[in-house]
Amino acid sequence: MSHHLFLLSPTDTPIYSLAHQSTKSTAPSSGSTLSSNLPSWSTAPFSGTLTALSGAQSVGTASTQNGAPKIGAGQDRHVIQMIANASLDVIEEMMVSNSAMYLKSIDKFNEWTVSAFVTPGNMKFVLLHEAKNDEGIRSFFMEVWELYVKTAMNPFHRSDRTIRSTVFDARVRASAKKWL
Amino acid sequence: MYTSGQAVVHPRLSVLSTSSLPSEHSSLGTASSTTRFSLPPSGSSTPVPMPTSASTLSLSKTPMTAVNLVRPNIYDRPLNKTRTSEVSLAAFTFLFSEMIQYTQKRVNGVADFERKLNTLGYRMGLKMLELHAWRTEGTSKAPKRETRFLTVLSTIGNVMWKAFFGRAMDAIQKSVTKDDEFMLIENDPAITKFISISKDMGSLSCSALTAGVVEAILDGLGFPARVTAHNVPTEANPNCTTILIKLDRSVLDREEALK
Protein backbone atom coordinates (compact mmCIF):
# COMPACT_ATOMS: atom_id res chain seq x y z
CA MET A 1 0.00 0.00 0.00
CA SER A 2 1.68 3.18 -1.01
CA HIS A 3 0.57 6.72 -0.28
CA HIS A 4 1.61 9.94 -1.92
CA LEU A 5 1.23 13.28 -0.22
CA PHE A 6 1.59 16.68 -1.88
CA LEU A 7 1.39 20.09 -0.25
CA LEU A 8 0.39 22.76 -2.72
CA SER A 9 0.62 26.48 -2.10
CA PRO A 10 -2.25 28.86 -2.99
CA THR A 11 -0.53 29.46 -6.34
CA ASP A 12 -0.47 25.68 -6.90
CA THR A 13 3.29 25.44 -6.41
CA PRO A 14 4.20 22.11 -4.83
CA ILE A 15 6.09 22.90 -1.65
CA TYR A 16 6.43 19.42 -0.18
CA SER A 17 5.89 15.86 -1.34
CA LEU A 18 6.15 12.51 0.34
CA ALA A 19 5.89 8.93 -0.85
CA HIS A 20 4.99 6.59 1.95
CA GLN A 21 5.01 2.82 1.83
CA SER A 22 2.54 1.50 4.34
CA THR A 23 3.21 -1.74 6.15
CA LYS A 24 -0.38 -2.23 7.14
CA SER A 25 -2.04 -4.76 4.91
CA THR A 26 -5.45 -3.74 3.77
CA ALA A 27 -7.37 -5.29 0.96
CA PRO A 28 -6.81 -3.19 -2.13
CA SER A 29 -9.87 -1.62 -3.64
CA SER A 30 -10.73 -3.62 -6.68
CA GLY A 31 -12.11 -1.81 -9.65
CA SER A 32 -12.09 -2.31 -13.35
CA THR A 33 -9.28 -0.32 -14.90
CA LEU A 34 -9.43 1.70 -18.01
CA SER A 35 -7.01 -0.65 -19.76
CA SER A 36 -9.60 -3.29 -20.41
CA ASN A 37 -11.32 -0.93 -22.80
CA LEU A 38 -8.20 0.20 -24.59
CA PRO A 39 -5.98 -1.45 -27.17
CA SER A 40 -2.41 -2.13 -26.14
CA TRP A 41 0.11 0.54 -27.07
CA SER A 42 3.25 -1.47 -27.00
CA THR A 43 5.16 0.20 -29.80
CA ALA A 44 4.55 3.87 -29.13
CA PRO A 45 7.41 5.82 -27.55
CA PHE A 46 5.07 6.87 -24.78
CA SER A 47 3.96 3.34 -24.13
CA GLY A 48 5.11 3.41 -20.53
CA THR A 49 3.08 6.45 -19.70
CA LEU A 50 0.09 5.38 -21.72
CA THR A 51 -0.15 1.96 -20.19
CA ALA A 52 0.34 3.55 -16.81
CA LEU A 53 -2.48 5.98 -17.45
CA SER A 54 -4.72 3.26 -18.70
CA GLY A 55 -4.05 1.26 -15.58
CA ALA A 56 -2.53 -1.84 -17.12
CA GLN A 57 -0.84 -3.94 -14.49
CA SER A 58 1.06 -6.35 -16.69
CA VAL A 59 3.83 -4.12 -17.95
CA GLY A 60 7.50 -4.49 -17.12
CA THR A 61 8.34 -4.35 -13.46
CA ALA A 62 4.81 -3.92 -12.24
CA SER A 63 4.95 -7.00 -10.05
CA THR A 64 4.75 -6.17 -6.39
CA GLN A 65 7.61 -7.47 -4.35
CA ASN A 66 7.05 -7.69 -0.66
CA GLY A 67 7.68 -4.28 0.84
CA ALA A 68 9.55 -2.93 -2.15
CA PRO A 69 7.92 -0.01 -3.90
CA LYS A 70 6.23 -0.82 -7.14
CA ILE A 71 7.67 0.66 -10.28
CA GLY A 72 5.84 0.74 -13.54
CA ALA A 73 2.17 0.82 -14.33
CA GLY A 74 0.31 3.52 -12.44
CA GLN A 75 3.14 3.92 -9.98
CA ASP A 76 5.41 6.12 -12.02
CA ARG A 77 6.28 9.36 -10.34
CA HIS A 78 5.07 11.55 -13.19
CA VAL A 79 1.79 9.69 -13.40
CA ILE A 80 1.24 10.17 -9.68
CA GLN A 81 1.97 13.87 -10.03
CA MET A 82 -0.40 14.15 -12.93
CA ILE A 83 -3.21 12.50 -10.98
CA ALA A 84 -2.59 14.84 -8.05
CA ASN A 85 -2.61 17.83 -10.35
CA ALA A 86 -5.72 16.73 -12.14
CA SER A 87 -7.59 16.50 -8.85
CA LEU A 88 -6.97 20.19 -8.19
CA ASP A 89 -9.86 21.08 -10.48
CA VAL A 90 -12.23 18.99 -8.42
CA ILE A 91 -10.87 20.43 -5.19
CA GLU A 92 -11.27 24.00 -6.33
CA GLU A 93 -14.77 23.33 -7.46
CA MET A 94 -15.70 21.70 -4.16
CA MET A 95 -14.13 24.21 -1.82
CA VAL A 96 -16.40 26.99 -3.04
CA SER A 97 -19.51 25.39 -1.63
CA ASN A 98 -18.25 22.73 0.76
CA SER A 99 -17.14 24.22 4.04
CA ALA A 100 -15.37 21.10 5.33
CA MET A 101 -11.59 21.25 5.28
CA TYR A 102 -11.23 17.51 4.86
CA LEU A 103 -12.59 16.47 1.47
CA LYS A 104 -12.56 12.71 1.44
CA SER A 105 -12.32 10.55 -1.67
CA ILE A 106 -12.98 13.37 -4.09
CA ASP A 107 -11.48 11.73 -7.13
CA LYS A 108 -10.65 8.27 -8.43
CA PHE A 109 -8.13 7.30 -11.05
CA ASN A 110 -7.52 3.61 -11.72
CA GLU A 111 -6.37 2.17 -8.41
CA TRP A 112 -5.83 5.57 -6.83
CA THR A 113 -8.28 7.44 -4.63
CA VAL A 114 -7.59 11.11 -3.99
CA SER A 115 -8.37 12.76 -0.68
CA ALA A 116 -7.66 16.38 0.06
CA PHE A 117 -7.47 18.84 2.90
CA VAL A 118 -7.85 22.56 2.33
CA THR A 119 -6.64 24.92 5.04
CA PRO A 120 -8.26 28.33 5.56
CA GLY A 121 -5.17 29.93 4.04
CA ASN A 122 -5.89 28.04 0.81
CA MET A 123 -3.08 25.52 1.19
CA LYS A 124 -4.04 22.21 -0.33
CA PHE A 125 -2.87 18.86 0.97
CA VAL A 126 -3.47 16.13 -1.60
CA LEU A 127 -3.14 12.48 -0.70
CA LEU A 128 -3.25 9.58 -3.14
CA HIS A 129 -4.13 6.30 -1.53
CA GLU A 130 -5.31 2.88 -2.57
CA ALA A 131 -7.42 1.67 0.33
CA LYS A 132 -10.29 3.30 2.16
CA ASN A 133 -9.13 4.70 5.48
CA ASP A 134 -11.18 7.83 6.20
CA GLU A 135 -10.52 8.13 9.90
CA GLY A 136 -6.78 7.48 9.61
CA ILE A 137 -6.40 9.94 6.79
CA ARG A 138 -8.32 12.57 8.72
CA SER A 139 -5.99 12.18 11.71
CA PHE A 140 -3.00 12.26 9.39
CA PHE A 141 -4.17 15.46 7.72
CA MET A 142 -4.80 17.11 11.08
CA GLU A 143 -1.25 16.37 12.18
CA VAL A 144 0.19 17.61 8.89
CA TRP A 145 -1.88 20.76 9.28
CA GLU A 146 -0.48 21.40 12.74
CA LEU A 147 3.04 20.89 11.40
CA TYR A 148 2.33 23.18 8.48
CA VAL A 149 0.97 25.96 10.74
CA LYS A 150 4.12 25.70 12.82
CA THR A 151 6.20 26.01 9.65
CA ALA A 152 4.16 28.98 8.48
CA MET A 153 4.71 30.77 11.79
CA ASN A 154 8.41 30.90 10.99
CA PRO A 155 9.08 34.41 9.67
CA PHE A 156 11.64 33.01 7.25
CA HIS A 157 9.11 30.73 5.60
CA ARG A 158 7.42 31.96 2.45
CA SER A 159 4.22 30.33 1.36
CA ASP A 160 5.51 29.68 -2.16
CA ARG A 161 8.82 28.11 -1.22
CA THR A 162 9.50 24.43 -0.65
CA ILE A 163 9.62 23.23 2.92
CA ARG A 164 13.13 21.89 3.40
CA SER A 165 13.09 21.37 7.15
CA THR A 166 14.33 17.90 8.03
CA VAL A 167 12.34 17.98 11.25
CA PHE A 168 9.16 18.69 9.32
CA ASP A 169 9.96 15.77 7.02
CA ALA A 170 10.65 13.44 9.94
CA ARG A 171 7.44 14.47 11.73
CA VAL A 172 5.30 13.95 8.63
CA ARG A 173 6.89 10.55 8.06
CA ALA A 174 6.24 9.56 11.67
CA SER A 175 2.66 10.70 11.33
CA ALA A 176 2.24 8.74 8.09
CA LYS A 177 3.61 5.64 9.78
CA LYS A 178 1.16 6.05 12.62
CA TRP A 179 -2.04 6.67 10.66
CA LEU A 180 -1.65 5.31 7.14
CA MET B 1 5.17 21.51 -12.61
CA TYR B 2 6.78 19.34 -10.00
CA THR B 3 10.26 19.82 -11.36
CA SER B 4 12.34 22.33 -9.52
CA GLY B 5 11.74 25.15 -11.95
CA GLN B 6 11.66 28.78 -11.03
CA ALA B 7 8.59 29.23 -8.90
CA VAL B 8 6.23 32.05 -9.73
CA VAL B 9 6.86 34.67 -7.10
CA HIS B 10 3.71 36.00 -5.56
CA PRO B 11 3.79 39.72 -6.21
CA ARG B 12 2.59 40.53 -2.72
CA LEU B 13 5.49 38.78 -1.07
CA SER B 14 8.38 40.66 -2.56
CA VAL B 15 7.39 44.30 -2.66
CA LEU B 16 9.42 45.42 0.31
CA SER B 17 12.59 43.68 -0.66
CA THR B 18 12.86 44.55 -4.33
CA SER B 19 11.34 47.92 -5.08
CA SER B 20 13.44 49.98 -2.71
CA LEU B 21 16.99 48.99 -3.56
CA PRO B 22 18.33 52.32 -4.84
CA SER B 23 16.95 54.37 -1.99
CA GLU B 24 18.24 51.92 0.56
CA HIS B 25 21.82 52.95 -0.08
CA SER B 26 21.25 56.58 0.63
CA SER B 27 19.28 55.91 3.78
CA LEU B 28 21.93 53.52 5.04
CA GLY B 29 24.56 56.15 4.40
CA THR B 30 22.79 58.70 6.53
CA ALA B 31 22.13 56.18 9.25
CA SER B 32 25.76 55.23 9.61
CA SER B 33 26.92 58.81 9.90
CA THR B 34 24.77 59.46 12.94
CA THR B 35 25.75 57.93 16.26
CA ARG B 36 23.63 55.03 17.32
CA PHE B 37 24.00 53.41 20.68
CA SER B 38 23.24 49.95 19.37
CA LEU B 39 26.20 50.02 17.01
CA PRO B 40 29.84 50.35 18.03
CA PRO B 41 31.19 53.78 17.12
CA SER B 42 33.17 53.69 13.92
CA GLY B 43 36.32 55.42 15.15
CA SER B 44 36.37 53.95 18.65
CA SER B 45 39.65 53.19 20.42
CA THR B 46 38.45 49.94 21.96
CA PRO B 47 38.61 47.30 19.27
CA VAL B 48 35.65 45.04 18.88
CA PRO B 49 36.70 41.47 19.72
CA MET B 50 36.75 39.27 16.69
CA PRO B 51 34.06 36.64 16.76
CA THR B 52 36.52 33.82 16.16
CA SER B 53 38.71 34.63 19.11
CA ALA B 54 35.68 35.09 21.31
CA SER B 55 34.34 31.70 20.50
CA THR B 56 37.65 29.95 21.02
CA LEU B 57 38.00 31.65 24.37
CA SER B 58 34.63 30.46 25.57
CA LEU B 59 35.28 27.02 24.13
CA SER B 60 38.54 26.63 26.01
CA LYS B 61 36.84 27.50 29.28
CA THR B 62 33.72 25.38 28.90
CA PRO B 63 34.25 22.93 26.09
CA MET B 64 31.20 20.74 26.71
CA THR B 65 28.31 23.16 27.15
CA ALA B 66 28.66 24.69 23.74
CA VAL B 67 28.39 21.29 22.10
CA ASN B 68 25.40 20.13 24.14
CA LEU B 69 23.34 23.24 23.50
CA VAL B 70 20.34 22.28 21.43
CA ARG B 71 18.10 25.01 20.20
CA PRO B 72 14.43 24.46 20.87
CA ASN B 73 12.72 23.45 17.67
CA ILE B 74 9.65 25.26 16.40
CA TYR B 75 7.97 21.90 15.87
CA ASP B 76 8.30 21.10 19.57
CA ARG B 77 6.45 24.17 20.72
CA PRO B 78 2.70 24.16 21.18
CA LEU B 79 0.57 26.51 19.09
CA ASN B 80 -2.11 27.01 21.70
CA LYS B 81 -2.79 30.40 23.12
CA THR B 82 -1.67 30.88 26.68
CA ARG B 83 -1.71 33.90 28.94
CA THR B 84 2.02 34.32 28.54
CA SER B 85 1.76 34.36 24.76
CA GLU B 86 -0.05 37.69 24.81
CA VAL B 87 1.99 40.69 23.74
CA SER B 88 1.71 43.92 25.68
CA LEU B 89 0.45 46.99 23.88
CA ALA B 90 3.66 48.82 24.76
CA ALA B 91 5.83 46.19 23.11
CA PHE B 92 3.63 46.10 20.04
CA THR B 93 3.58 49.89 19.78
CA PHE B 94 7.36 49.98 19.91
CA LEU B 95 7.64 47.36 17.18
CA PHE B 96 5.01 49.07 15.07
CA SER B 97 6.75 52.42 15.37
CA GLU B 98 9.98 50.79 14.17
CA MET B 99 8.07 49.25 11.27
CA ILE B 100 6.66 52.64 10.34
CA GLN B 101 10.07 54.32 10.52
CA TYR B 102 11.63 51.56 8.45
CA THR B 103 8.91 51.88 5.86
CA GLN B 104 8.98 55.66 5.80
CA LYS B 105 12.64 55.65 4.74
CA ARG B 106 11.78 53.57 1.71
CA VAL B 107 8.76 55.27 0.24
CA ASN B 108 7.84 58.40 -1.60
CA GLY B 109 4.34 59.61 -1.02
CA VAL B 110 1.45 58.64 1.18
CA ALA B 111 -0.03 56.15 -1.28
CA ASP B 112 3.24 54.23 -1.49
CA PHE B 113 3.53 54.33 2.30
CA GLU B 114 0.09 52.83 2.78
CA ARG B 115 0.72 50.21 0.14
CA LYS B 116 3.85 49.00 1.92
CA LEU B 117 2.18 48.95 5.31
CA ASN B 118 -0.60 46.99 3.65
CA THR B 119 1.96 44.50 2.31
CA LEU B 120 3.44 44.04 5.77
CA GLY B 121 -0.04 43.48 7.14
CA TYR B 122 -0.79 41.02 4.38
CA ARG B 123 2.09 38.81 5.41
CA MET B 124 0.96 39.01 9.03
CA GLY B 125 -2.61 38.23 8.07
CA LEU B 126 -1.72 35.03 6.25
CA LYS B 127 -0.14 33.68 9.42
CA MET B 128 -2.83 35.04 11.71
CA LEU B 129 -5.59 33.42 9.67
CA GLU B 130 -3.95 30.02 9.68
CA LEU B 131 -3.08 30.16 13.36
CA HIS B 132 -6.49 31.40 14.40
CA ALA B 133 -8.20 28.68 12.40
CA TRP B 134 -5.98 26.05 13.92
CA ARG B 135 -6.70 27.26 17.44
CA THR B 136 -10.45 27.20 16.94
CA GLU B 137 -10.83 24.17 14.66
CA GLY B 138 -7.68 22.17 15.38
CA THR B 139 -9.34 19.86 17.86
CA SER B 140 -12.58 19.52 15.96
CA LYS B 141 -13.61 16.22 14.42
CA ALA B 142 -14.70 17.88 11.22
CA PRO B 143 -12.90 21.19 10.83
CA LYS B 144 -14.73 23.83 8.83
CA ARG B 145 -13.75 26.77 6.66
CA GLU B 146 -16.00 29.73 6.08
CA THR B 147 -17.37 29.80 2.55
CA ARG B 148 -19.89 32.64 2.59
CA PHE B 149 -18.77 36.23 2.53
CA LEU B 150 -21.09 37.67 5.15
CA THR B 151 -20.18 35.04 7.71
CA VAL B 152 -16.51 35.66 6.99
CA LEU B 153 -16.98 39.38 7.46
CA SER B 154 -18.71 39.02 10.79
CA THR B 155 -16.15 36.45 11.92
CA ILE B 156 -13.33 38.87 11.12
CA GLY B 157 -15.05 41.76 12.86
CA ASN B 158 -16.07 39.90 15.96
CA VAL B 159 -14.22 36.65 16.64
CA MET B 160 -10.90 37.26 14.94
CA TRP B 161 -10.48 40.89 15.98
CA LYS B 162 -11.19 39.84 19.54
CA ALA B 163 -8.53 37.16 19.31
CA PHE B 164 -5.94 39.45 17.70
CA PHE B 165 -6.51 42.82 19.34
CA GLY B 166 -8.57 42.03 22.41
CA ARG B 167 -11.78 43.71 21.27
CA ALA B 168 -14.25 43.39 18.47
CA MET B 169 -14.90 45.89 15.72
CA ASP B 170 -17.36 48.62 16.66
CA ALA B 171 -19.46 48.36 13.54
CA ILE B 172 -19.72 46.39 10.34
CA GLN B 173 -21.52 48.20 7.55
CA LYS B 174 -22.48 47.72 3.97
CA SER B 175 -22.18 50.59 1.56
CA VAL B 176 -25.54 52.04 0.59
CA THR B 177 -24.50 53.19 -2.84
CA LYS B 178 -22.20 50.39 -3.99
CA ASP B 179 -23.02 46.74 -3.57
CA ASP B 180 -19.40 45.58 -3.56
CA GLU B 181 -18.18 47.75 -0.70
CA PHE B 182 -18.19 46.86 2.97
CA MET B 183 -16.81 48.71 5.95
CA LEU B 184 -15.33 47.63 9.25
CA ILE B 185 -15.36 50.51 11.69
CA GLU B 186 -13.18 50.86 14.73
CA ASN B 187 -13.73 53.89 16.96
CA ASP B 188 -10.34 53.86 18.61
CA PRO B 189 -7.99 51.27 17.09
CA ALA B 190 -5.48 50.02 19.64
CA ILE B 191 -2.57 49.93 17.21
CA THR B 192 -2.74 53.62 16.32
CA LYS B 193 -3.43 54.82 19.84
CA PHE B 194 -0.04 56.50 20.20
CA ILE B 195 0.33 57.75 16.65
CA SER B 196 -0.35 61.30 15.59
CA ILE B 197 -0.01 62.05 11.92
CA SER B 198 1.79 65.25 10.99
CA LYS B 199 0.03 67.74 8.75
CA ASP B 200 2.19 67.09 5.68
CA MET B 201 1.28 63.42 5.77
CA GLY B 202 -2.33 64.40 5.28
CA SER B 203 -4.56 61.41 4.86
CA LEU B 204 -2.11 58.70 5.93
CA SER B 205 -3.72 56.03 8.03
CA CYS B 206 -1.39 53.62 9.77
CA SER B 207 -4.31 51.21 9.98
CA ALA B 208 -3.21 50.27 6.47
CA LEU B 209 -1.45 47.47 8.34
CA THR B 210 -4.72 46.05 9.63
CA ALA B 211 -6.27 46.61 6.23
CA GLY B 212 -3.56 44.32 4.90
CA VAL B 213 -4.44 41.78 7.57
CA VAL B 214 -8.08 41.84 6.50
CA GLU B 215 -7.07 41.54 2.85
CA ALA B 216 -4.94 38.47 3.59
CA ILE B 217 -7.75 36.80 5.51
CA LEU B 218 -10.24 37.44 2.72
CA ASP B 219 -7.73 36.33 0.09
CA GLY B 220 -6.90 33.15 1.96
CA LEU B 221 -10.54 32.20 2.27
CA GLY B 222 -11.09 32.84 -1.42
CA PHE B 223 -12.61 36.31 -1.49
CA PRO B 224 -10.18 38.50 -3.42
CA ALA B 225 -10.68 42.13 -2.48
CA ARG B 226 -8.92 45.45 -2.26
CA VAL B 227 -8.82 46.68 1.30
CA THR B 228 -7.84 50.17 2.38
CA ALA B 229 -7.94 52.13 5.62
CA HIS B 230 -9.29 55.64 6.01
CA ASN B 231 -9.47 58.14 8.82
CA VAL B 232 -13.01 59.19 9.52
CA PRO B 233 -12.71 61.49 12.53
CA THR B 234 -15.90 62.39 14.35
CA GLU B 235 -16.64 64.62 17.31
CA ALA B 236 -16.74 61.77 19.77
CA ASN B 237 -14.01 59.63 18.19
CA PRO B 238 -11.15 61.58 16.64
CA ASN B 239 -9.30 58.33 15.92
CA CYS B 240 -12.18 56.61 14.21
CA THR B 241 -10.90 54.43 11.37
CA THR B 242 -12.79 52.71 8.60
CA ILE B 243 -11.42 49.68 6.85
CA LEU B 244 -12.98 49.70 3.43
CA ILE B 245 -13.36 46.40 1.57
CA LYS B 246 -13.93 46.53 -2.15
CA LEU B 247 -14.77 43.06 -3.34
CA ASP B 248 -13.70 41.57 -6.61
CA ARG B 249 -16.55 41.17 -9.09
CA SER B 250 -16.03 37.38 -9.15
CA VAL B 251 -16.90 37.16 -5.45
CA LEU B 252 -20.24 38.88 -5.94
CA ASP B 253 -21.08 36.65 -8.88
CA ARG B 254 -20.28 33.58 -6.84
CA GLU B 255 -22.31 34.73 -3.86
CA GLU B 256 -25.21 35.33 -6.19
CA ALA B 257 -24.90 31.84 -7.64
CA LEU B 258 -24.74 30.22 -4.21
CA LYS B 259 -27.91 31.86 -2.96
UniProtKB/TrEMBL annotation, chain A:
GO biological process: endoplasmic reticulum to Golgi vesicle-mediated transport
GO cellular component: a single term: cytoplasm
Database matches in CDD domains: TRAPPC2_sedlin
Stored Gene3D superfamilies: 3.30.450.70
PANTHER family cross-referenced by the UniProt entry: TRAFFICKING PROTEIN PARTICLE COMPLEX SUBUNIT 2
Name recorded for this polypeptide: Related to Sedlin (Trafficking protein particle complex protein 2)
UniProtKB/TrEMBL annotation, chain B:
One biological process term in Gene Ontology: endoplasmic reticulum to Golgi vesicle-mediated transport
Primary location: endoplasmic reticulum
Keyword Lipid metabolism attached: no
Skewed-composition ranges (Low complexity): 19-28
One Gene Ontology CC term in the entry: TRAPPII protein complex
UniProt family annotation: Belongs to the TRAPP small subunits family. BET3 subfamily.
Name of this chain's protein: Trafficking protein particle complex subunit
The organism of origin for this protein: Serendipita indica (strain DSM 11827) (Root endophyte fungus)
